[in-house]
Amino acid sequence: MKKHYLVEFSVRHPKLVVVIVALITLGFLTQFPKIKTDTNPKNMLPPTSDVRVWNDEVDETFGLYEDMIVVGVVSDEGVLNERTLGKVLRITDEVLRIEGVSARDVNGLPTITNVTAEAGTLRVAPLMAEVPKTQAGMEGLRKDLFENPLFRGRVISDDGKTTAIYIPLEKGANGKTIADRVKEIVKKEGGPERYYVAGDPVARDTFGAEMFKLMAVFAPIAGAIMLIARYLMFKDLFLSVTLMMDAMISIVWSMGLLIALGFPVHIMSSMAPVFLMAIATDSIHIFNEFYFRYKEKKDKKAAIIETMHAVGRPVRYTALATAVGFGVLMFMDIVPVKVFGALVAFGTVALRVLSFSFIPAMFTFVNEKNIEKIAAGEETSTGRTSGFLRGLAALGAHSPRATALIGVVLFGISVFSVSRIVVNNNMVEWFKSDSDIRTADSVLNTALGGTSLGYVVALSDEDEYIKTPEAMRRIEGLQRHLEKLPVVGKTSSVVDYVKRINRVLHDDDPRFDIVPSSKEEIGQYLFLFSMSAKPSDLDNVVDYPFRKANIWVQLKTWDVEAMRSVIRAVDEYKASNPGALAFKPAGIAYFNLVWNDEVLWDMLKGFAIALVVIFVILAFAFSSAKWAAVGYVPLLFTILIIYGAVGYMGKDFDMPIAVLSCLSLGMAVDFSIHFISRLRQRLSETIQAGAPSSESLADALLWTAARPGKGIMRNAVLFASAFSVMLFAPLTPYITVGAFIVSMMLLSSVLTMIYLPALIVLFRRRLFGGD
Amino acid sequence: MLKYLVLLLALLLPLKSFAITPEEAMKNSQAAFLYQGKDFKARVVMRLISKSGSERARELTMLRKNYGETGGDQKYFMYFYQPADVKNMAFMVYKYPGRDDDRWFFVPALNMVRRIAAQDRRSSFVGSDFTYEDVSGRDIADDTHTVLKEEKLGEADCLVVKSVPKAVDTDYLHKLSWIDKKTFLPLKEEYYDKRGALYKVFTADEVKEIKGFPTVVKRTMKDLHSGHSTESTFTAIDYNMGIEDSLFTERYLKQPPRKWIE
Question: Does the global pTM surpass 0.80?
Fold first, then answer.
């Protein structure tokens, strides 16, 4: 048979095949030293994407920094004492020396610009160049801090127990490296003060680095567990290792190809090995069948060829379905998603080629006595597993209506729960709630204005317009409107400086804490301020020609929804207060929102396309749309139940879950393909012609559940056990991945076993025609 | 004996005239750069240029009068024309060596003179890259100076002096100055940040002789960290005009005599 030429060739020349595979693998291995990594999740969107270009423009216009680390210093007795302030001063001084820190714009008690009036003298100076040595000096500092709205919620908490140092990072600096250095510095200062290091770059870069590390730790552990599980199933170390090698070789090939083509290994592609390892478990069907066949034939070579003949078609189609499931990602917009899709699709194809060459070749080396011993255990009528599977199938086959009814009810509940799913992403919440990063973030968000930073840029089309009282009042109005949102901790803008100077110039009279009534006054105040302040103080909030102003919005959470609500509030404000200023969101919080939407929707789009394409493949695999529809049910049902559970538990539909959606499709469809192909094969073997009677159909169903079903179960258990390790990972997305895959595998295998028989019995006439 | 003495003197003499102490070099430089004449006037146009190339303008008349020797007291009077909304704003500084300046502002919108505390001499002058210190000078005794080498900068033979602040209150770790051996004007200065990296560069771009005094008429300060730079051009320069002491009072700050600000 032409189709199985590769298998026959491999069985006849096993050594040659192994050597060729080894050589190709070595070839790809030589590429590994060239590996480049990119741990920055930001790069999911290319630097040329609209949001990055716009954010860069805003950063440039206002001399801002993409990233900021916040260090919180907390003292239960209040931070305004000589000892704590001394520490803050020393920490700030050390921080200024760190490579990658933009020293001149570090803002903390020692460096932040303070505008005050003392005995008729205007004073613009760093707030605390030295620690006050006297009681009076300390009181003065307290007064300065608490009377100035620019400081409260920023460098001092309302209860006076928390102060913060804001550390802007130069472009390209690694947040984790700098955060680690900052941690060393605060550690030197020691207690009783407590220190917290927070901020998006810390979370982002730590996550990137941790993810790589976890992949390096997790992939081998998962591999080892699969190896042990296989050994327990087949009691043959050589074959277990062979199966393992199958996965390893395809990983080497695909990663080697990725590196050779010059792509950096991005966090997304770093997950590919684990995915491939999972996909490789599909070859277990070959082993499963091989033992049954060997038992019947007692001839190794014949058994191999017959096995490949029996499972060849389903294995090819499952591979095709998986490859296509990932392949559609290549048509998405986001480059790392494309690369990831191509990588896994390539790996899947490689795996299948190996299944038809390398694995049969390796079979020929197995000691026949060993096989005989194990094969004796593979008995469908007596085996415990087979008995259980038969029972599952009987449930569906003998009471199809009741089963279907339960299914409909479950379906309804799931659909309802799915409708409650919230699409959200929060990178800080990717860390466990007791992790340093989460703790730091929540402490600072409670005490201060918030560690998440977004901007709203006010745009006019006229130079100098920002200096007009009209523009100032409109910006101020927006600030007050935004501050009504519970997620907004604090806003600041050029208006705050103008109001501050107005008050200070009028002998600190609170009645003058307002926007002045003429443009000249505003212009002169700002000029006065710029006479002594750091240039960045003004640059950060207005552009050079005073056409644009930048409103800083500190958010109390990294939820992307927080920024969405800010944008909504801005739109409301625009609608109810029409005027010459336009407002546009920017900043890292805005970037995260766009990132979330683009990447997530890209994945969802991929998922939807894959759903359609996989149906088409099923239709081809079974040469029947009807059978495809039946085979599709367990797949859809599994996904629906899992997303239903996600919605029911109130878990956000975030990035990791979106990535998994694609995997789940490619994997869950396998079981249907195996089950239906083998069932139909069995029917064609046992029934001469025409449609099967209900009795012979039930028999065939039970046989399928017991024999290829065992392969399905083994596949699912193997898969689930390997991924269960992830439940113990320190990052929540891994826990999500682990829980998701474990439940998906078990669910889809059980649903396949119960619902396929039920549906096939119910629709017997339509599927087979005849009586 | 005498023979040896003469020989010794002959050996020492050229060395001595050559080896000016670094403190003297810095003092001469300050005299040439910031204390030239009894008084001084210039129309100053500053272009503040951001990294992205957008500009802000500052235009003012600067009047200066010396009281005492180089490094001694000085009074400055500045009257602003630009930006437009600060027209008529005026700024007055009494500079004293060794202690904080006194500074006053006239705010036309409030028709009010306000004192403004001078805290940090390293803070920005009117939002430019020049600091107050760059405009009015730094006490020579605040730094330890050493001559590193001599080298040619363009056509000029220069002494390269390294100045390390004695206190740690500056934004830089040390400064290198290229001082023209003929005019003693600083032709270039390099500021190194606390990590030891070059971060600010001053250049004297054009020098003209006015009333016999070599004067830097165009200068630039560039901040390498922020990409920001400021170009300052002096026109209508004059020396020894006999500026009266009464100019430097609150009264004239509100209403400066026309002859000085036109």
Answer: no
